[in-house]
């Protein structure tokens, strides 16, 4: 009798020439469970506990987290085997990367991202196959409410809204120093931030450039969040919020820069082209459009975070959207009247999506950046 090669519980198999061996296949089959260990480690406070105490034994961990013995065994089995924690003797400590992220103050952003994945993205992803079949965001049915897309439903779900904007702020802050440095080089005095969220980028840009005024175009439900943040930052003289629908009306005009941050991953390429046409008309001659979000390789085979992030855009926010290829943006830009674009990239910090590049052109130019992946972000959002 011959042994089957197809054993998903095998810890080692012969290497395969193209890289996908049985342990790698098992990680795909059970990938959802791996995420749940990370999610539970965050929500139950295991990461915080070990960051405070260095290393603890199983009983101390169970007592401090309020877990029964079996539950604690399961949590530690998963976290240790996945490398989130390391077992040394009879004690458990954080993996070096996790400890370094906590030490650097970067772990909150990871936890905010994990919470978004766990409470929002995960829900809709059960409808991934159905969404591909329908070529539409079938997963939206799992978010309670009547709003026409995810953004309109957030205000109907205050807990999800808080999870979303904590994540979106963290996600944007992980990479917006690239945005600030590229935009500052363009020396704008008037910038339109389309779908500016809670004003995270507008505040960073206005803080870096004292002569800059920013107009944020946002749906009314989110505009109120942005207004609160702007007041907290003391920037209400220089950042104004225009409540409206970017698809419905012409943009206000006379800007040096029109920014789409983590925005042109939500819509179809036809909608993106229409938005870029409006941006073109809203720019003064010589102005620039900046597209800042994750982008996938022109070959269509990576990076892996672009692929993973595309599941969220396929199932939840709106009918269109994905982490598009650079070339697809080039096509939209040309159709909207822009000339040659400049690709810029920036990838230097650990974060859950995949970040980095941009574009510009001499008449009205384009800069865009894609998000790089931590071990996930999406632009995100
Ligand atoms: C992925 S978030 C990005 C937020 C922000 N630009 C950032 O980078 O953090 C997308 C934002 O677009 C806004 N949005 C969605 N549809 C919109 C529309 N039709 N008009 C204006 N804003 C819209 C959402 O409310 C949300 O804040």
Gist of the model:
This protein is of the alpha/beta class and 381 residues long. It has helices at 22-29, 31-43, 46-53, 58-65, 69-81, 96-103, 107-125, 128-134, 150-154, 158-185, 200-208, 220-232, 269-282, 304-315, 326-335, and strands at 55-57, 85-88, 91-94, 190-194, 213-218, 239-243, 255-261, 283-292, 342-343, 354-355, 365-369, 371-372. It folds into 2 domains: 22-102, Arc Repressor Mutant, subunit A (Orthogonal Bundle), CATH 1.10.10.10; 174-372, Rossmann fold (3-Layer(aba) Sandwich), CATH 3.40.50.
Write out key terms for the chains shown:
binds S-adenosylmethionine, 3-stranded antiparallel β-sheet, 7-stranded parallel β-sheet, about 375 residues, Arc Repressor Mutant, subunit A, globular, 2 domains
SSE layout and pairing:
Elements lengths: L21 H8 L1 H13 L2 H8 L1 E3 H8 L3 H13 L3 E4 L2 E4 L1 H8 L3 H19 L2 H7 L15 H5 L3 H28 L4 E5 L5 H9 L4 E6 L1 H13 L6 E5 L11 E7 L7 H14 E10 L11 H12 L10 H10 L6 E2 L10 E2 L9 E5 L1 E2 L9
Parallel strand pairs: 4-5, 4-7, 5-6, 7-8, 8-11, 9-11
Antiparallel strand pairs: 1-3, 2-3, 10-12
Helix pairs in contact: 2-7, 4-5, 7-10, 10-11, 13-15
The structure holds S-adenosylmethionine.
